[in-house]
């Protein structure tokens, strides 16, 4: 079963939901705000996608950080702890289908990913 990780109030999440509904693809939604994220799942995301892809530097959570904090989270262990605490700084959406993982919403890339 396809699982989408994110937060419901995000416009990119809404676009992803609409895209999947239009294609008739069923999915489960994992809401970081209500369900959080486990250390194992976060590590799986980072192992598969890389820290640079998982840490959402475009979002307001990251942009509001001090320059000192931004510098601290260049350290992988600091970044991991930060993402566990501030899960709204995790790239959205992250889609998981078995062992396959993709991050972000790009309709063409997502279409290819879903059909492979």
Brief rundown of the structure:
The chain has 116 residues and is an alpha+beta fold.
What attributes characterize this protein structure?
Glutaredoxin; 4-stranded mixed β-sheet; alpha+beta; 8 helices; 116 residues
Chart the SSEs and their pairings:
Layout: E1 3-6, H1 11-23, E2 28-31, H2 32-35, H3 39-49, H4 51-54, H5 60-63, H6 67-72, H7 76-85, E3 94-97, E4 100-103, H8 107-114
Parallel strand pairs: 1-2
Antiparallel strand pairs: 1-3, 3-4
Tally of discrete structural domains:
1
Query: Architecture, CATH level 2?
Result: 3-Layer(aba) Sandwich
Give the H and E element order: EHEHHHHHHEEH
Helix content: 40-55%
- Structural class comes to alpha+beta
What are the segments in which pLDDT stays under 50 over at least 5 consecutive residues?
none
CATH fold category name: Glutaredoxin
Structure explained in plain terms:
- By secondary structure, the chain is an alpha+beta fold.
- It has a single domain (about 5-115), classed as 3-Layer(aba) Sandwich (Glutaredoxin), CATH 3.40.30.
- The protein is about 50% helix and about 15% strand.
């Amino acid at each position: 079963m396809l699982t989408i990780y994110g937060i419901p109030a995000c416009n990119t999440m809404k676009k992803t939901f609409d895209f999947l509904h239009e294609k008739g693809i069923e999915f489960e939604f994992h809401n970081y705000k209500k369900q959080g994220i486990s250390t194992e799942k976060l590590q799986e995301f980072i192992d598969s996608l890389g820290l640079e892809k998982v840490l959402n530097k475009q979002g307001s959570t990251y942009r509001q950080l001090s320059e000192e904090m931004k510098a601290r989270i260049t350290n992988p262990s600091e970044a991991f702890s930060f993402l566990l605490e501030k899960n709204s700084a995790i790239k959205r959406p992250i889609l998981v289908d078995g062992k396959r993982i993709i991050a972000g919403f790009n309709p063409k890339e997502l279409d290819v990913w879903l059909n492979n």
